[in-house]
Design goal:
There is one protein chain. With about 160 residues, the chain is α+β, with helices and mostly antiparallel strands. The chain has a single domain (about 5-155), classed as RutC-like (60s Ribosomal Protein L30, Chain: A, 2-Layer Sandwich). Helices cover about 30% and strands about 25% of the residues. The protein has helices at about 5-15, 65-85, 110-125, and strands spanning about 30-35, 40, 45-50, 50, 90-105, 135-140, 150-155. The chain has a five-stranded mixed sheet, with helices on one face. It has a two-stranded antiparallel sheet with strand order 3-4. Helix 2 crosses helix 3. The protein is globular and about 50 Å long.
Amino acid sequence: MRLMQGRIAARIEALGLTLHGPHPPHDPLDAVVVHDNVARTSGQLPRIEGKLTCIGTLGHDVSVDEGAIAAEVCALNALAVLEQELGSLDRVERVLTVTGFVASTPDFHEQPTVIDGASRVLYAIFGDAGRHTRSAIGVAALPRGGAVEIEVTVAVAPPGHQ
């Protein structure tokens, strides 16, 4: 069981959400890179307990609702790797950008609706500091057959300035 502390951890718990990760990438990649006051995650797939929860293609065998739930899981996994790197999600001052990739058929055009799952959960957790810029990109395929992948970039406070 994870022991999270702080106001953001309390907010996550109050919302009934769970950080299922962290699920770090393979070597030589880092899950998070922090430079100056910015932290950026590697792409996060919809994994719970290490298992992909949404495999397939939007517009073929995955519904928009299933994709939006997968995007939420991806965003929560991004927060898990951020928490591991930063020590506390209270250091997140602002969510800056979300980049969402959706495995989709050529005639599928609801990528933004799918990625809304990630945007909504980040806003629910961080309030106005969770508002962000975003791209929702349709792609032919994603790693391991995942339907959605999310990257998150945040502004961070230095340690001790939460």
